[in-house]
Design a protein that fits this description.
By secondary structure, this protein is mainly α. The chain contains three helices and two strands, in the order H-H-E-E-H. Strands 1-2 form a two-stranded antiparallel sheet. The longest helix has 24 residues. The radius of gyration is 12 Å and the shape is globular.
Length: 83
Amino acid sequence: MGFLWALIVGGLIGWIASLIIGKDVPGGIIGNIVAGFVGAMIGQAIFGTMGPVVGGFAIIPAILGAIILIFIVSLILRSVRRK
């Protein structure tokens, strides 16, 4: 049950970050989950573990990290599409 909870929270983090930045995550639900997990790692490495922890994720740094990740991925995808 813990892994399922982590998947749900990771997906929600990715989804919230995509709403904040205004760009869709490539890959739909799976992309949101990946963005949530990778964003949480990035955010906790940069900002630590401040704020509430849900499903093993420190929510505030995870959302901030997911925003950073989605922004970088969107820049890369935009430059690839131009070529």
